[in-house]
Amino acid sequence: MKKLSKLLLVLSFALSISSTAFAVTVASWGGAYTESQKLGYGDPTAKKLGVPINWVDYSGGLSEIKAQKEAGKITWDIIDVFAMDTITGCDEGLFVEFDFDKDFPAAPDGTAASKDFFAPMPSKCAVGNILYSWNYAYNTNNVKGTPKTIKDFFNTKKFPGKRAIYKSALTNLEIALAADGIKPGKGGAKIYKALETEKGVNRAMNKIKELCTDPNGGCVFWSAGAQPPELLVSGEVVMATGWNGRFFNAEIGEGAPIKQVWDGQGLDYEYFVLVKGGPNEADAKKALAMMTSTEGLAGSAKYIAYAPWRKSSLKVMAAGEPWYKDGKTNMVPQMPTAPANTKNYFLVDPLFWADNGTELGEKWEAMKSGL
Amino acid sequence: MSSETEKILTTDGIPLEVSLKKAERKNKIKAFLLVAPLLLFLLITYIFPIGDMLMRSVDDKMVTEMLPKTFKSMEKWDGNEMPPEEVFEAFYLDFQKLVEEKRDGKLSTQLNYTKNGFKSILKKLRRKAKNFEEGNYKEQIMAVHKRWADVEYWRAIKRRAPAYTTSKYLKGMDMYKNEDGKIVNVDEDRRIHRVLWLRTLEIAFFVTLLCFLMAYPIAHLLATLPMKYSNLLMICVLLPFWTSLLVRTASWMILLQQQGVVNDFFVMTGLVADDNRPEMMYNKTGTYVAMTQILLPFMVLPLYSVMKTISPSLMRAGKSLGGTPFITFWKVYFPLTIPGIGAGCLLVFILAIGYYITPALVGGASGTLISNQIAFHMKSTLDWSFASAMGLMLLAGVLAIYWVYNKLVGIDNIKLG
C-alpha cells in the first residue's frame, strides 16, 4: 500500500511536470475577468490547438516577470497587462515584438488585423484584448434629476453629495479638464496637450481640489475596483467614477439602483504580451493569435461588459444579440466602444503616463495631503 | 604562570592545555555544524538580499556604460547653458549604438527616472535619427522636440554620469544634487516623500500607543482570571487574529462609514442629527481604529506571557508592606511587565511602519504611506533601485528605533514568551 502510494506520488509529479511543460501558461487578473477569458476564448482555443492553457492569477505590474527573468526561470508564456506595462516591458526587452498583420489573423471581411484594432497599439509587443471604461455612475435613489455629462459630476450645486474618485492621478486629471471645459478632441489629444503644460496640470488639480473641499461635495478615494459600486449602494457617496464592468455587474447582475453615465469617459485597455523565452513560446504564439481573433474576443464579451479590441467583434455580437450569458441582455449598448457611448470620450494615453507618471503622481499626493 | 601550566601533562604526555583545546575545538565544530544550516538560511534569505538591495540602491553603472562618449564630452561642460556641439555629437553616436543593440528602451526608462519626459522624446529621436545628416547634430537634435532644447534635460543626463550614486537616497528625502554639487530641495509642489515618512511614523506611533493602552488591561485580565474564563477570553483575542486582514478592514468600512452601522445607531438613538453624521472612515480616525484592532493581538500576547509569570503574591506583599493599590501596581507590578511592553511595542511598531493595504483602503486622502510608494516603484515604474533605497531607509529607521530602545530600556529586557 505504501509503495503504491509512493508510486502514485512519483507518477503524478512526473505528469504534472510533463503537462506544464507542454501547456501554455497565461497570467491574468483573476476573478470574474479571468473566468470570462477562460470561457470566452481560452477553452475554445485549447480545444482547437490541442494544447492545454493554464490560467494563473497575478496582481499586475512587471515585477514578477522581471524577477522570473533575472532568476533565469520564466514560467509564464502570456501575460495580461496594462498599456503602460507593455511599453516598459517592451523597452526592457521582456516581451516579443509582433508583426501585427503577419502574426494575427484578419477580420472575417478581410480587413487586416492592424486596421481592425480599435486604436493603434502602444508598443510593438502588445496585442489588444479588451477595452474598459473609466466612466461614472450614480445612485438613482439618492440623486434628484439625471446627471448626463461629465460636468454634472463636478456640479455640486445641482447634485449635492460626496463623490468617490480613484486614489491616483490617472484619469482624474483628464476628467477634471474635460469637466472644466476643454474639448477632448480626437481621442483626447487636446486634454493631453493641456496636461503637457504646468498650467494645465494646475488647472486640473484645482478642479479636483475644489470638488473635494466643497462642503456640498467632498471626496472618498477608492483603490479597489469593487469599491465604487459598494460606495454607491451603501449611500456613502452619490456619484463614483469606476470601471464600467463593475457597474454593469451591480446594475444588471445584482439589480442595484445605479446608472452609468458615458459622457467624458476614459477608454483604457488591456493587452496580451508574449514573454520572450517563455516555456512554450511557439504554442503560446499560436494560442495568442486564436484568442485575439474576431470570434475569440467576441466570446469573452458574453461573460463580462468589456469591449473587444477588434471592431469586427462588435458585428459578431450585434448579430447574436442578446449576447450576454443570461440570454436577455443586449451587450452592444453596454460596450464602452459602442457608438452611442463614444460621443465624448478620451483614450487614456499610456505614453503620456509612462512619461510623466512619477512626477504627476508626486504632485497629486502633495495636493491630496493638503486637503 | 605560563611556565607552570606547561608543566601539567595528561597521561599520554600531551600538555593539558593542548589536549583541552583539542577537545574544545571538536565541540566548537560540532556546535557550529549544528547552527550552520540556520546560519546559511539567514545568509541566503536575509543578509544576501539586504546586501543586494544596498548594491541596487547605489549602483548606477548601467547608464555610465550606455553613454560613455557623452559623459566624457560633458566633463568640460559647466551645465549653465546648452551644451556644445561635441556633447550632442557624442550623445548621437552613443544613442545610435544603443538603438542597434536594441538597448535604447532601457536608457529611456533609466533617464525617465531622473527626469520625467525622456521616454517620448527618446522614442521620437529614434525615429528621426535615421534621417539625420552628418554634422551639426545640435540643431538636428534640438529640432526633434522642444524638450531637447531645454537645458534641464541635459543637466539630468549629466547627473547620471557617476557609476555610484546617492541620488536615490536624496530623492527619498525630496532632495537632489544640483549642477554645483549642492544638495537642494525639489520643487515645493512635488515634495511628498518627507510628508509620507512623517505620516508613516505618526501613524505607527499612535497605533502602538493605542494598542498598548488597550492591550494592557486585556492582558492583565487574561493573566489573572480563572482558567475557564481566561480561555474564552483568549479565543476572543485570537479569533480576529485568524481572520483575513482584508475581511477585517472591509468590516470596519461597513461599520464606520457615514451611512454605516455605527452612524445609523447614533442617529437612531438621537445622539447626532441625520444630516450631521460624523466622519469616522476615509480619514485618520478610520486608519487608527482599523490598524489598532488588527495589530492588537501582537501586543496582547507578549504582555500576557510576561504577566502570567508574575506571582500574585508579589502584589499582596506590596500591599502588606503598606502600599496603596496604585503604588503597588506602579512600583511592583508595572516594572515587572516592562519586558512584555518592550516586546509588544517593538512588534506592533515595526509591523505598523510597513503597513499599506489597510491605510490605503480606509485612510482616504491621508491613506498613502511610504510603503505604498515603495510598492508603486516596485510594480509600476520598475525603479527597483529607488524602491531599494527607500526600503533600506525604512530598515535603518527601524534599526535606529531598536538602538534607542536598547539605550533606554536594554535589549536583554525584552521577552516574547
What does this structure look like?
The complex is a heterodimer of chains A (371) and B (417). Chain A has 371 residues and is an alpha/beta fold. Chain A has two domains: 2-131 and 269-338, D-Maltodextrin-Binding Protein, domain 2 (3-Layer(aba) Sandwich); 134-268 and 344-369, Periplasmic binding protein-like II (D-Maltodextrin-Binding Protein, domain 2, 3-Layer(aba) Sandwich), CATH 3.40.190.10. In chain A, 44% of the residues lie in helices and 17% in strands. Chain A contains 16 helices and ten strands. In chain A, strands 1, 2, 3, 4, 5, 6, 7, 8, 9 and 10 form a ten-stranded mixed beta sheet that branches. In chain A, α2 (31-49) links the parallel β1 and β2. In chain A, 51% of the residues are buried. The model of chain A has no long low-confidence stretch (mean pLDDT 90). Chain B is an all-alpha fold and 417 residues long. Chain B has three domains: 2-58, no CATH class; 61-163, no CATH class; 193-408, Orthogonal Bundle (MetI-like fold), CATH 1.10.3720.10. In chain B, strands 1-2 form a two-stranded antiparallel ribbon. In chain B, α12 packs across α15 and α17 packs antiparallel against α20 (384-408). Chain B is flat and about 100 Å long. Chain B starts with a helix and ends in a 9-residue tail after the last helix. The model of chain B has no long low-confidence stretch (mean pLDDT 89). Classes of the chains: A alpha/beta (371), B mainly alpha (417).
